[in-house]
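Pilot study result, target chain (87 residues):
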Amino acid sequence: MDAPLQDCTIEEQRGVVRFLWTEGVKPVEIHRRVLAEYGQSNMSQRKVYEWVEKFKSGRTRVIDEGRSGRPSTSRSRKASSPQEYRK
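Predicted structure:
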């Protein structure tokens, strides 16, 4: 392929990781290939390893699972100190 796939979803990349892993490709090679195809919008090597481990453990879905707990609601700028935030 001549140009990297700049417009892609993280789920698409996870699918590629899963496919290559099932083909017996090592995680370091998977990351190299994902980097070559997706350019700077690629998964980090650490994430590739994490997803390979998830697939080894039996996970098959590439979409994020729902999480329990309270969702983030903060929309303000980050304060450098509690006193500055109160101003």
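One observation from the pilot: Residues 57 and 67 are 19 Å apart (CA to CA). A full batch analysis is planned for the follow-on phase.
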